[in-house]
Specification:
alpha+beta; D-amino Acid Aminotransferase, Chain A, domain 1; 2 domains; 6-stranded antiparallel beta sheet
């Protein structure tokens, strides 16, 4: 089946993955290709260019759902440099809603990245790895029930974070425990849960077609519990070992070194989630803040 305006990540060779990365036309897609090129776990996905017509979109999404035996599709939107008010995706939708959302994005000139669906209400762990060329490594974590957009949009503070100094991103050298500072925000967990519930009620439930009864936090809480999505309310939150920190550093070093082959950087952020329910960790993308937004 031939597609002119669609790329399936599963069909790309290592050379193709690198070519997609260095094009950097659509950063979410391009950096997910980089992550797959580096053999880090990523969700199966496809890129739909803004030039795609509805017939091609239908055929591409039908093939994707059939091959992966899906009943829903996660829809992200992608562009070059973003404005501060760009339209966000990240919801897992049934086929009809996915088609509608995709065509809406294509009509305004945005590309769409369709992915294997996730349950953003039941994530086990959310992790951002921040690389600072001045010699710092930042690790930000949110525990069960939150998702990556809570962290990336600054909607809640990390539950737990680490800052490691004396890092030389040009040469591999394991961090030393003496240079690690830890900060816990667990005393504010009740407030963070309320912030999350407010967002679920006002944004996430309406996005998947659920009337959230005047956007109340109590409705969101009841909806989560009635559907068995109790991750947000778990008392066992985040356990981090020194082995985890070293593993994150090694991944960050690999990504930072490889990214530098394409372009120098001052800051990078590598985003990942443990999806829970035994699905393990997936890596989403790599953000270069200097290249994400248009300057005013």
């Amino acid at each position: 089946m031939c597609f002119k305006n669609v790329q399936f990540i599963a069909d790309l060779s290592e050379h193709d993955l690198w070519t997609q990365f260095v094009s950097m036309r659509y950063p979410k897609w391009s950096t997910s290709c980089l992550l797959k090129y580096l053999h880090l776990p990523v969700l199966d996905s496809l890129l739909i260019y803004p030039s795609a017509a509805i017939d091609e979109v239908n055929r591409a999404l039908q093939r994707f759902m059939l091959v992966d035996k899906l009943d829903r599709i996660l829809i992200r939107t992608d562009s070059g440099r973003e404005s501060g008010d760009y339209i966000r995706g990240g919801n897992s939708l049934d086929f009809d809603r996915a088609i509608k959302m995709t065509m809406k994005m294509l009509r305004i000139g945005r590309a769409v990245v369709a992915m294997t669906p996730t349950n953003r209400f039941n994530n086990k762990l959310t992790v951002n790895l921040g690389l600072d060329a001045e010699g710092f490594f930042h690790i930000e974590l949110l525990g069960p029930g939150f998702d990556l957009s809570d962290l990336n949009r600054g909607l809640v503070s990390p539950e737990l974070s680490f800052t490691i100094s004396q890092i030389n991103w040009m040469f591999y050298e394991k961090p030393h425990p003496l240079f690690v500072k830890q900060h816990s925000n667990c005393e504010n967990l009740a407030e963070m849960r309320l912030q999350r519930l407010h967002r679920i009620a006002s944004e996430l439930l309406p996005a998947i077609g659920i009337d959230s009864k005047n956007n109340t936090e109590s409705f969101a809480k009841n909806w989560l519990l009635e559907n068995g999505f109790n991750a947000l309310f778990r008392e066992d939150r985040i356990q981090v070992s020194w082995k985890d920190i070293i593993n994150w550093y090694e991944i960050a070093f690999l990504v930072g070194r490889t990214y530098r082959r394409y372009s120098p950087w001052k800051h990078l952020v590598i985003s990942s989630s443990d999806l829970g329910n035994g699905r393990g960790t997936t890596y989403w993308d790599v953000i270069n803040p200097e290249k994400k937004f248009d300057l005013p």
